[in-house]
Amino acid sequence: MNKRLLAVTTLGAVLALGAAACTDDNTADLSNWAKGVCDAAQSPIAQSRTALADTAKVAPEEAPADLQKRLSADLAALGKTNQDLADAIDKVGAPKVDDGATVQKDAVGELKQAAQGYQDAQKKLDGLPTTDQAKFADGLRSVGDQVQRLSQLSTQALGRLQSGTLGDAMKKQPGCKAAAPGAAPGTGGTDPTTAGSSSAGDAGTPSTGAATGPTGSTGSPAASPTGTAQASAGAPTGSASPTG
Predict the structure, then answer these.
(1) Is the pTM of this model over 0.85?
(2) How far apart are CA 109 and CA 34, in angstroms?
(3) 114, 154 Cβ separation under 8 angstroms
(4) What is the pLDDT of residues 21-51, one digit of tens each?
């Protein structure tokens, strides 16, 4: 009887140790996965924040053609950063969580869709007539609306990676902490990617809206897609909020 009890007790101890080992292994796997994402995301996030800050600038004396050229470069940068984030998440692989492969696939797909959308918005912007103030301003508003939708798509994509155990693992990574609130210069707003609290996500998937203002002193419209980093999910963030 004692031998049987001892065997059962020993078996219980072995099973307990095995469960603990599995938990530790999964934690390590998630930590490595989060590190891969956060490290690779730092540069795209920084670049996207720079582009967002630039889209928010309104220079009254900037000629329409110059404004168009500047904003075109910003949209190109936003397209590239979304593609870079998609590539980084694709390269790291699927996280070892329930439906990890689906989460990764959906996030990558939406970021690629956003990247293509920014390229399309850039082409639309490049085709606007800079010699007609009214048409140019109307076109900028339309581009701004398009970019806002793309920002929300980026936020949604990166938000998939920032919930539950994945979000907890990412919050612990220096790469994501570096992109946490307060680390984004010139974002003007809050965070991947909807007005909230600034985060790395904001940068990844920045949100821009079209704003039109009074005509500048040189006759050029003071209108441009305005960018505000939105903290929902633009990219992995040091906080739990998703990012742009």
Answers:
(1) no
(2) 19
(3) yes
(4) 444 468 899 999 999 999 998 899 889 889 8
